[in-house]
Amino acid sequence: MADVIALGETMLRFTPFSYGRLETAQSLQVHVGGSESNMLVGLARLGLDALWLSRLTRSGLGAHIANALRAQGVDTRRIVWTDDDRVGTFFLEEGSPPRASRVTYDRKGSAMSKMRPADLPLDLFTPGGARLFHTSGITLAISDEAAATAREAVRLAKAAGWQVSFDFNYRANLWTSEGARAGCDPVAAQADLLFIPLRDYVTIFGADPASTGESALADLRRRYPGATIVVTLSSNGAAAITPEGQVLQHGAVEVTPIERLGTGDAFVAGFLYGYLTEGLTAALPWATAAAAWKMTLPGDLGLLDREALADLVRGGGGRDIRR
């Protein structure tokens, strides 16, 4: 039995050193990154059983991704390997204000974008096979085949009695706000847990840019009455509302950020860890601690530390040198 099974694409990320420009870079850092697998790495490092479903090209690049996830404790035995297609990549040009960071995708025709419902391991989707299934809007956006696979995985998970978690995870480079709303709605309607940043709520649902966390939660509860909905509020922390109307809030942990990529995935990992091990009231403290911790680390993966996060949840800090 796995605690959490997630479906999604993981890519190789290439980044110039020292905030350099791609057009003049002579060498690039290599990282592994994908929303669902970033989150699974966080869960595995916190001590839960995490299994990744995806499709990868059998090559050195595909092996690099699988090895990186396996090294952090993620179960990669159910990867669908293929000799066809390619491994998706993306390029991050890190900026510092006033120059914004910029992501360039090179993922068209990737192996995961051609994963079909028939590729899902049906023997996994049984009562007791897992506690929770997770996917994101990115998986729905990369192709019609991937979206159909995600929808079928959600159907199978619900039929098996698992909980379903869904992160809207809007990417403007992949689809429009209207496409995201239409594409995400069928999955969100079946989810038990929903995650969305306030900025994505405004974009996807065409809401007032001045919307507050409170108004977003109220609107989303009307749209998805069966789910516990979590809205992240950037430096103001996060808030959640249950189907019964219980509202929970937690402030952000003070942090000096090193890198922001993967922060939302770490937040979800922390939330699911707290939720599955201690209950809903513990979820937001673990989530905000995990998000802050991730921002102190380079790369996309959620290299979380359970002891350090527990200290943050208890109100401790990380300003002193540990000797």
Question: Would you give an account of this structure?
Answer:
This protein is of the alpha/beta class. The protein has one domain: 3-Layer(aba) Sandwich (UDP-N-acetylmuramoyl-L-alanine:D-glutamate ligase), CATH 3.40.1190.20. The strands form three sheets. It has an eight-stranded mixed β-sheet, with helices on both faces. A four-stranded mixed β-sheet has the order 3-2-7-8. A hairpin with a 5-residue loop joins strand 13 and strand 14. Helix 8 runs antiparallel to helix 9 and helix 9 crosses helix 10. The chain starts with a strand and ends in a 10-residue tail after the last helix.
Features:
323 residues, alpha/beta, UDP-N-acetylmuramoyl-L-alanine:D-glutamate ligase, eight-stranded mixed beta sheet
Brief write-up:
This protein is an alpha/beta fold. It contains 10 helices and 14 strands.
